[in-house]
Amino acid sequence: MTVVNLTTWILNPLLGLMIFLFIFRIILTWYPQVDLNRFPTNLIAWPTEPFLALLRKLVPPIGGVDITPIIWVGICSLLREILLGQQGLLTMMSHVS
């Protein structure tokens, strides 16, 4: 297994999982009474909060609405397409060798 194939094998499910978790974070913003420190919502909050906190420093809530999970869905989707899409960088590199 080449390094490119191994990287693809790891990145594809990882980025897919992060997109899934950020979409759940978007849904959880509709329910502000939900405690993110309790099971099972902490399984969604724990891996996503460091990313959201970092971006919240640059993009504060707009009108009381936190849009950072939406931005992260876009970033992860873009990275996945650029690296692993049909004409992605890693996809093209795996076909060269």
Write a compact overview of the structure shown:
The protein has 97 residues and is mainly α.
Question: What general outline do the C-alpha atoms trace?
Answer: elongated
Rg calc: 16 Å
Distance between the termini: 11 Å
Order of helices and strands: HHHH
The total of helices stands at 4
Residue fraction in strands? under 5%
* Uncertain segments: none
Structural class: mainly alpha
Pfam families: CCB3_YggT (PF02325)
Family: Belongs to the YggT family.
Protein name: YggT family protein
Keywords: Membrane, Transmembrane, Transmembrane helix
Protein architecture, described:
There is one protein chain. The longest helix has 26 residues, at 3-28. With 97 residues, the protein is mainly α. It has 4 helices and no strands. It is elongated, with a radius of gyration of 16 Å. It has helices spanning 3-28, 42-56, 68-84, 89-96. It has one domain. InterPro entries: CCB3/YggT. This is YggT family protein.
